[in-house]
Amino acid sequence: MIIDLPSTTTSQVNTKLVQVREQGGANTLGRVLTLVIVTDDGERTEDAIDAANEASREHPCRVIVVARGARKAAARLDAQIRVGGDAGASEVVVLRLYGALADEGASCVIPLLLPDAPVVAWWPFEAPAKPADDPIGKLATRRITDSAADRNPIKALEVRQKNYAEGDTDLAWTRLTLWRAVLAAALDLPPYEKISAATVTGEGDSPSTDLLAAWLASRLRVPVRRVKTTTGQGICTVVLERKSGVVELDRPDGKVGTLTQPGQPSRRVALQRREIRDCLAEELRRLDPDEIYESTLKSLTKVDRARAAAKPKARAEAKSEPPAEPKPPAKRAKAVAAARSGPAEKAAHPASPPRKTAKKKAAS
């Protein structure tokens, strides 16, 4: 059921929520948290709401969507209440803010927060440079961003690293859960040897690839190289080097990966690229600070991003080429020097005078 409340106030929205709850029998005490979605009003707003509805089936919550509209319009609040089949296992309140109200999202959210329930803020697309200092971010105990959805994903990840605060997390980090689980399980199998180096290959604008490389650098404390590629999507390959051979996890198609280890048969593992709803549901399972994510952000500076993939190729080409012969160039240099110093006839026949001298000596 969808109820539209054009040109309304937060007080009227709250009153309507109580009426709907009394008529439909929905129990507010069944909501475990309040999820606040902050975005600009547009076509992508519905995608974020759909993801929140799916995640709410695991975490029943009240979803408040702050959709900021045109700032040049007159100040106005248009609200929409969704319950039942249109809201998953939650109740959705969409607040479309126009004019001066577009920058007052926190003031409109506070009257609609569930009492004594934690608040999680989610920026599905562009996010503030420091979410902890954002007015809505200050209300939340957990702040979720998505660097991959930013216009410049790698730059956005650098901003997250610089402005990290306890409670921050990123869906680019959540997408690594399956990769981290498979790699950790692979190292639990014999031979139990120390990793000496690692290489992570992925798209150039994939923040998840950078985070995976930083995670390996943080946990294994070995040199890690991050290589860019254009032949795959997201993370493509992880190679861990050790004495007995390499452990390689390769995912060329973005769906199924192949784990290769010395002395063991190759195994295929499910590494499907995760949907937003799955990543969001995972992040809503914990409301405490993520220390592993924090240490991973700090290790981003330890990753070698130099394009070292071209160096082995250059060395191989150098080995395949035959060694240069120094004698011919030296002879040519002598001929040129003789031509510049002597007459033209001597330059044309530089060897004739020595041969005549040799004949005279032989005759005598």
From TrEMBL:
Domain of life: Bacteria
Glucose-6-phosphate dehydrogenase assembly protein OpcA C-terminal domain span: 167-297
Positions with biased composition (Basic and acidic residues): 314-324
Domain Glucose-6-phosphate dehydrogenase assembly protein OpcA N-terminal: 52-161
Record region (Disordered): 304-364
Pfam family, one: OpcA_G6PD_assem
PANTHER family: OXPP CYCLE PROTEIN OPCA-RELATED
Protein name: Glucose-6-phosphate dehydrogenase assembly protein OpcA
Classification of source organism: Bacteria, Bacillati, Actinomycetota, Actinomycetes, Pseudonocardiales
Gene name tied to this protein: opcA
